[in-house]
């Protein structure tokens, strides 16, 4: 079952994931959560650009972990990158090309 939860989060084959507070979905699904009993698997990236994450992805990732951290039935979280080449290069630096310094600072704060 595919569902939606926190902004920027795609849920794959999740059991009762909506209670974790994750809301809305990005079209490209840069952050996804899969729940199998007491184990949640969080996947980052799209499999392109070395799974670089935009500021909205960092915020979505933080929201996912905030929500998962409040679930007493959670036993473990597995974090993986989409694709087979790279876990994640970190921030998508393309966002910074035309950004003001305050926007770049906000990106670091979101990480």
TrEMBL record:
One Pfam match: ECH_1
Superkingdom of source = Bacteria
**SUPFAM superfamilies, sorted:** ClpP/crotonase
* Designated name of the protein: Enoyl-CoA hydratase-related protein
Q: Which organism is it from?
A: Streptomyces cynarae
